[in-house]
Amino acid sequence: MLWASVAPDVLLTSPEPQAWSAAQCLAHLNAAARPLVPALEARVFKAQRYGPYGDPPFHYRWYERLFIASVAPEGRIPIPAPPVFYPPPEPDAETVLDTFCDYQQRLSVCVARSQGVDWERARVASPALPVLYLSIGAWFEATLNHGRRHLRQARRACGLSSGTSEMARDEAAS
Fold first, then answer.
1. Which of 144, 141, 107, 136 lies closest to 120, judged by CA?
2. Sign of CA dihedral 159, 163, 169, 172
3. Beta-carbon contacts of residue 49 (< 8 Å; ≥ 6 apart)
4. What is the pTM of this model?
C-alpha cells in the first residue's frame, strides 16, 4: 500500500511547485467525496424503497460518458478541480488516509445496497454544479476513475512507478 511504503515527509512533499503532494491528492478525493457520498447514500436509500428499480445493463447519457472519461487516469479531456475541492496546503497525512478509507468503505456499501436500483434513472446533483444531475451509475464509475487518477498521481508524487502491473496489484489489494 502506498502509505505504508513511504516516509511521512515524502507524503507531504510536492514533486514540483504547482503539483499536489500524495497527501493532497487524497485530501482532494476526500473533498470531492464529502458532499457526494452522503448524497449517493441518501438517493440509494430512497430508491430502495420507492424506485426506480432496474437491472443492468444501464446506458448513460453522452455527457455522463464524457464526464466519466474526463476523470479517468487516461482521460484526454481533464476537468480542472473546482476551488471548493482544492486540498489544504499541508494536510495531516494520517487523518487524510483515515478519511479516505472511510469514504471508500461507505461508497462500497452504497454500491452493494444499490443492487436492484436503476443506476440509469436514479440521479444525484453534482456537488460542484447543482443544476447538473448524473445517474448514480455514472457517479459510481466516475468516482472510481477519479480515485484511480489521483492515486496514480500520488504514486508519482512519491517517486513511485505508476506502471499498470503495479497499479493492478495495488488496486487488487485494496
1. 136
2. positive
3. none
4. 0.88
**Separation CA 9–CA 20 (nearest Å):** 14
Grid coordinates standing for 79? 476537468
- Looking at residue 7, the DSSP 8-state letter turns out to be -
Give me the pLDDT at residue 161, please.
64
pLDDT digits (tens, 9 = 90+) for 98-133: 999 999 999 999 999 999 999 999 999 999 999 999
For the residues of 89-157, what is the DSSP string, one character each? SS--HHHHHHHHHHHHHHHHHHHHHTTTB-TTT-EEE-SSSTT-EEEHHHHHHHHHHHHHHHHHHHHHH
Alpha-carbon distance 149 to 80, whole Å?
Answer: 13
Q: Which residues contact 160 (CB under 8 A, 6 or more apart)?
A: 2, 5, 6, 166
Separation CA 133–CA 136 (nearest Å): 9
Residue 23 burial class via C-beta count within 10 angstroms: exposed 0-12, middle 13-18, buried 19 and up: buried
Say if residue 162's pLDDT is above 60: no
At position 91, the amino acid (one-letter code) is P
Q: What is the pLDDT of residues 3-57, one digit of tens each?
A: 677 777 888 888 888 899 999 999 999 999 999 999 999 999 999 999 999 999 9
What DSSP assignment string belongs to 19-49?
A: SPPHHHHHHHHHHHHHHHHHHHHHHHHHHHH
